[in-house]
Amino acid sequence: HLLLQGARVDTKTVDGWEPLHSACCWNNVDCISMLVSNGANINATTKGGQTPLHLVCASSHNSPALQLFLTHPDAEKMPVNVSGDTPQMIATRTGKYYPIFEMIEPCLNDI
């Protein structure tokens, strides 16, 4: 893969997207895991303030990735993007993962 050839995990597009953002958008859990284990910033933000967790919560097919982010010790659980949305708010609008946030909300600061 590209990492073996020296590709950087923190390369950004003009919009501030890093490879981790793209992996989250495309629901590629294997790629997400590989990028995080190779030093990708799990809290990287785009110019719009979107973190990888925001993008995972916008997907209705990314439960394993959501679990990875919510259990990762360095992941910020309630970042706010430039629209004022937290991942939980996005999950509420997409519907599918909102109950997960309700269950873990009391202990988010302890995770």
UniProtKB/TrEMBL annotation:
Pfam families: Ank_4. ANK repeats lie at residues 15-47. Keywords: ANK repeat, Repeat. SUPFAM superfamilies: Ankyrin repeat (SSF48403). The keyword Magnesium does not apply. It comes from the Eukaryota. This is Uncharacterized protein. It comes from Bracon brevicornis.
